[in-house]
Amino acid sequence: MTRRLAIALVHHPVLDGRGDVVTSAVTNLDVHDLARSARTFGVSDYFIVHPVTAQRELVKRIVSHWAEGSSGKRIPARKDALELVRTVASLDEAFAALGGRAAIEMWSTAAKASGDVLDFATARARLAGEGTPVLLVFGTAWGLAPDVHTACDARLAPVESTSEPPYNHLSVRSACAIMLDRLRGR
């Protein structure tokens, strides 16, 4: 038996290039591609966290296009992935959907290591056992605000560059796919 794993893509609170807390915009590719990664690796829910109603409505239109619109008719397999998408105004709403904050473990992700990090082998083993659901949280823009990391139960090790000089500027779509493969891939 494996633990339930859900993901959240946070658009607020995230950081801008100067380190200020901001709200980022939804992008079609993030909605679509993270859903496909989530479906591929057995994720139960994909929460898109955005406090702005118009942005949550945009997500619903994007999902509709890929599930029922012309793209859904051309590529019907994508509908399965997009059924995992849940739009919420805050992480608290995602917690509630999973049984409440006390009923889950929340793990954050970041492009840079900071403090104690949970390596992928240990995280994979923890997910393979029994326990409470895990919500794996990704940030948009320049990453999650410090308060989000502080509220988490663990912080996953970053995906690290092997290039010289080191280069670490993956899209959240790529980072999510790599991390889910490391946590749940064969």
Overview in brief:
The protein has 8 helices and 8 strands; from the N terminus they run βββαβαααβαβαβαβα.
Low-confidence stretches: none
Alpha carbon gyration radius: 16 Å
The shape is globular
Q: Give the quaternary arrangement of the chains.
A: single chain
List the total number of helices: 8
Task: Tell me the total number of β-strands.
Answer: 8
Average of the residue pLDDT scores: 94
Numbering strands along the chain, what is their spatial order in the largest sheet?
Answer: 5-4-1-7-6-8
Main β-sheet description: 6 strands, parallel
Name the helicity range: 25-40%
Q: Structural class of the secondary structure composition?
A: alpha/beta
Report the span from N to C terminus. 15 Å
What is the percentage of strand-forming residues? 15-25%
In N-to-C order, the SSE pattern is EEEHEHHHEHEHEHEH
Textual characterization of the structure:
The protein is an alpha/beta fold and 186 residues long. 40% of the residues lie in helices and 16% in strands. It contains eight helices and eight strands. The protein has helices at 28-40, 53-67, 70-74, 77-82, 91-97, 120-128, 146-151, 172-184; strands spanning 5-10, 14-15, 21-22, 46-49, 85-88, 105-108, 134-139, 154-155. The strands form two sheets. Strands 5-4-1-7-6-8 form a six-stranded parallel β-sheet, sandwiched between helices. It has a two-stranded antiparallel sheet with strand order 2-3. Helix 1 runs parallel beside helix 8 and helix 6 (120-128) crosses helix 8. The mean pLDDT is 94.
